[in-house]
């Protein structure tokens, strides 16, 4: 199930644990919920930058199945955190027999529980070597935060249409074209002449520590498009 994040247009307190606890109780019979994209669409990006032996932090995991799908794809350790006790208890029970998945109730705004350099990658889908941030927020809303000098990140932006999006009368989009990073302006914004095929596309920000970029490139020497062979695209 997919849903656009309209948090900027309503009065829901998405930072309030009580809101999420109530929501997960009310939607307990609705099954899992994945914001934006499923792992099948994000796999080429994840596999290109993060080895299966990496220790991964999934921020704001909710009751999504992305971590489960990553384990099925060979990932060995994923620590999932969420502000909702209800969600964490639910997921702990669901995956109690899956040792690769760990669940902790935690506010992502306070990561003091973990020592520095605890993780090789951090994934934020809807909500420190590599950070994956998947969102509806375009560069005008995100780059001022992500591009702060204190983070020392090299940022690449990818834009992919919503799952199932197709322009009326047009054949399905070429998936490989989505795997090319968008050339940003000096201010980190989209070029003035850039036109999104899907006006409600999802933005994927991949942030790499500059000091570690060489190491990451050695781990992923093949072009990103080569990963498509593994999923038959």
Automatic annotation (TrEMBL):
Q: Which SUPFAM superfamilies does this one have?
A: S-adenosyl-L-methionine-dependent methyltransferases (SSF53335)
Q: Which GO terms describe its molecular function?
A: S-adenosylmethionine-dependent methyltransferase activity
The signal peptide, as residue positions, is none
Q: Which residues form the Methyltransferase type domain?
A: 57-125
Biological process GO terms, please?
A: alkaloid metabolic process; methylation
Name the InterPro entries on file.
Answer: Lys/N-term_MeTrsfase_sf (IPR051419), Methyltransf_11 (IPR013216), SAM-dependent_MTases_sf (IPR029063)
Record's keyword terms, sorted: Methyltransferase, Transferase
This one is known as Methyltransferase type 11 domain-containing protein
What organism does this protein naturally occur in? Answer: Anisodus tanguticus
